[in-house]
């Protein structure tokens, strides 16, 4: 670790075009079109550079790569190689040996040598394998489509002909749910406090899209990887590297909605252990359908949908690794298994959401009954993640989240990066959910006492500036990406406070919105146009990475990274994601939710208590927080 710190203290102007032109290309791809004869094999090849004699170039590459927090490891090269065209291919069956001859030819002009360390994720021209899983999924999807068509026809001809189970699949009925207001005249007027949640989720999802677009560009093969490296020296991009902190906003919303609805339900029904158990099962049925569909699609159909030099690396690799760990996703434990395998890694949030819901319902079983215990119990739970993060960072000398994302780590999508599991993915390191629970208790108590926070100028001002305070926390983190690092005690202090402060300030924002503190942000987030998009936000979060991989994996050339290309990528990804979400929502997500509700609400099968999540569905129309 001391070595890493000394590397960061070095400051060399590495961005000189002349210097970078001296380097061997970090990424390179053989022509894809010329490797399409039957049985031609195109592989992703990694090689390590070395030299049997003194080499000034290799010395510079090693020093350049030693600044690991801002540079790729340039002592390695990554190639897409048409192995079947390599010299000497007919003399060996080993892909590594065959690729070695191509790499030797590729690197010869730089007076260096290279040792191939892997040649895998290969695509064989003319070979397309339809798995048994793909056939079974096709049968299942055709069956669902037939049921959907039948239900839709019945709903148009005579809705009374269909029973509630069939009508759960009606496109007409589900379209009305998608487009109607989140609250209606017959619902509790207090549910209007959720009116801004759609806008927050839609705008938040856009920031997630942009962050993941940067990630996929760092992961894919590009002709200017130095563009990513420059991020670590430019202030706006440094701030963007701290954007994962803002994910606490979604945990705050989830906690707020869970606790607030439980408090409303408790006015009429006693919350029991059975009710909490049912709420957890209900949550599973709301989150699982889209996750199962996307997971199955990734393993079975996605690899068949395209080809290209990146395809095996970006798409097929994930499909294979998903097939090895898919069952973790059924139990929403995907954020607890480490990062050795890459499988829909962005779904860690969904796993944490489910785990927080289980913990939250067990807490509410007690706290709703003994409300005076709420803040004394929730405050330590809110503070504990910060202390745990600071302790882990101090012991292991880890940097904060902002500085824990080197280019080489992004290139491998955090594979085998222990900091990701111990600091970021672990639910006990995220305080936002508990801040949301506490905020709900405060808001509910204010309503009971007739306290109107929107009439208190000081609080409205605090709520208005809360998002700016979040940005201040993110900006402060930039000092941990400087060449001269702050002392380790400063790292521990910032790690202890960053997510907690973001959660606290987002709680002020949510409480202000719920209390109807008028502002430009309040009016923007309450815009009617966000209603349908807000309901699609969970689905959009789940499937947007498939869209990203589809676009990137289909590219047959090296990617050229620029601000303009990334903005275009954001626009294209947003449009395609939401277009894909509409059928997935209407045919997969909502029908399963509606079917589950129909089974539960069937005549003569009422449970002994009113489940908490039934009215939660009225608040969010069957949509998980993203």
From TrEMBL:
Please name the GO terms that the record assigns under molecular function.
acyltransferase activity, transferring groups other than amino-acyl groups
Acyltransferase domain residues: 196-582
Keywords (A to Z) from UniProt: Membrane, Transmembrane, Transmembrane helix
Q: InterPro entries in the record, alphabetically? A: Acyl_transf_3_dom, O2_lipid_transport_reg
Q: Where are the transmembrane segments?
A: 136-157, 245-263, 284-304, 347-368, 375-395, 423-446, 458-481, 501-521, 533-552, 558-588
Q: Which Pfam families match?
A: Acyl_transf_3
The identity of this protein, by name, is: Acyltransferase 3 domain-containing protein
Task: State the organism of origin.
Answer: Pieris macdunnoughi
